[in-house]
Write a structure and sequence with these properties.
The chain is an alpha+beta fold. It has 3 helices and 11 strands, in the order H-E-E-E-E-E-E-E-E-E-H-E-E-H. Strand 5 and strand 6 form a beta hairpin.
Length: 230
């Protein structure tokens, strides 16, 4: 191979290397993709939705460290966030932020109250009128009750719990499909550093549960692509 051929190969290698580096930087610090595989956020998010997640807004944790890059905003109540849950090391979850640091939360017969005010949540889906039983996972809530003297008799259920006080540096997350979502009611609060980013929009969507052959081509949800996530 002549010099010109060697030069072309070297240029190709440099271009490929630079592309890989840029992709790593973008994926680590700027944006993230996320695929919905469960129905815990229906009908806001559907199984087979592909999300684009803004990582730079909230700052990004440097891989292998506790150091975060500075963001330009903070999480806000009502936003749909992607985060790293404490109970599962290799899992990313997406839920809606309903409780900010210092908030007092409780639920009465499926109705959420924040700081004593009932919440208008048109995005919430309720499907199961039964199943409101005590759950052992929910007993973590005893340590965060507004009235500590009630802890010995506290028996939370899916649809009735609290009032709880969210401590500094923590958030309370709920799925929009409330009857079928494992969320902060069960596995607890989320620390600020675990938040990965804000869900922005759908860049692809198809009916993943369809039995049709090549469903990722034949069952595309065109009306969802490009739609902003609220």
């Amino acid at each position: 191979m002549g010099r010109s051929g060697s030069g072309e190969v070297w240029e190709w290698v440099k271009t490929l290397g630079l592309t890989i580096i840029l992709l790593i930087i973008i994926r680590t610090f700027l944006i993230q993709t996320f695929v919905i595989t469960s129905g815990s956020m229906e009908d806001t998010l559907l199984v087979g939705d592909f999300l684009m997640v803004n990582r730079v807004a909230l700052g990004t944790r440097l891989p292998g460290t506790d150091v975060r890059t500075p963001g330009y905003s903070e999480p806000r109540r009502g936003e749909v966030l992607v985060f790293d849950p404490a109970h599962e090391d290799r899992m990313k979850l997406v839920k809606r932020l309903v409780g900010m640091p210092g908030d007092t939360l409780h639920m009465e017969d499926k109705l959420l109250f924040v700081n004593g005010e009932s919440q208008d949540e048109p995005f919430v889906k309720w499907n199961d009128p039964t199943g409101d039983d005590e759950h052992p996972w929910m007993m973590w809530q005893q340590d965060h009750l507004l009235n500590e003297e009630d802890s010995s008799e506290y028996r939370p259920t899916r649809d009735n719990w609290g009032p709880l006080v969210v401590p500094d540096g923590h958030y309370f997350m709920l799925g929009d499909n409330r009857d079928f979502s494992l969320d902060s009611r069960y596995w607890g609060l989320i620390e600020r550093w675990r938040v990965e980013g804000k869900a922005m929009f759908f860049y692809f969507s198809y009916d993943r549960e369809s039995a049709a052959p090549l469903s990722f081509l034949r069952e595309i949800r065109w009306d969802r692509i490009g739609r902003r996530i609220r």
